[in-house]
Amino acid sequence: xxxxxxxxxxxxxxxxxxxxxxxxxxxxxxxxxxxxxxxxxxxxxxxxxxxxxxxxxxxxxxxxxxxxxxxxxxxxxxxxxxxxxxxxxxxxxxxxxxxxxxxxxxxxxxxxxxxxxxxxxxxxxxxxxxxxxxxxxxxxxxxxxxxxxxxxxxxxxxxxxxxxxxxxxxxxxxxxxxxxxxxxxxxxxxxxxxxxxxxxxxxxxxxxxxxxxxxxxxxxxxxxxxxxxxxxxxxxxxxxxxxxxxxxxxxxxxxxxxxxxxxxxxxxxxxxxxxxxxxxxxxxxxxxxxxxxxxxxxxx
Length: 300
Hints:
The structure is a single chain. This protein has 13 helices and 8 strands. It has 300 residues and is of the alpha/beta class. The chain has an 8-stranded mixed sheet with strand order 3-2-1-4-5-6-7-8, with helices on both faces. The N and C termini lie far apart (66 Å). The model has no long low-confidence stretch (mean pLDDT 94).
């Protein structure tokens, strides 16, 4: 049986622990380090090696997987490791801003390390499970050199050499995810305000979301992607004038029900700005033009 590559995991919150568990289950010798040392005990019981210091953790192998609260935590921890950073491949799956990730690439290079940034697109229980995937960016060569080990966590998707790209994709997907769920909460509150059962909306919501993702002629996610790619917004059947009027009625419904109306208000304002910018006869997708060019902040 081939010997598996050793991997070090730094940071044993729920995500880091799940990654270390997956690596151990796949047969990778796994070294772990965490500020609160007791968090490593269950992993040690399963065969992990607990490093006594960040420097010792780094010297255990070339591949270092980092899962911390932010990039500042990486600096705080690894700046104490001296020359042990040299020659290491740091795969940081912590959250941060795209610009922060770009700066981190320079920080690693100054210390003789290579940084690969990433955003893992599942919650901790999904790590290593079918359907799991990770957006990576930064230098491709070290990523491919360690792809077998990283594939244990999920599918390896390299998005480009710009260190910030992985976080752009990660946060874009979070926007879709949280936006959809928050919209469901708003929609449910509106139905419930009329005295109906909140769960009665679910099958209709599920049917709508499934339809959005359909690849057929009525799949709106595909339609929007194609219109954005072409920068062509045909509004013959459903213009922004109509959408803006509907958005005003939606906002009124929330206000009449005594509900929070911030989300409907934001959508109404977006559509009206697009109309004011000359896109009234275009499709809803033309709102993208004002998303790209936001106005100066106002009191409205």
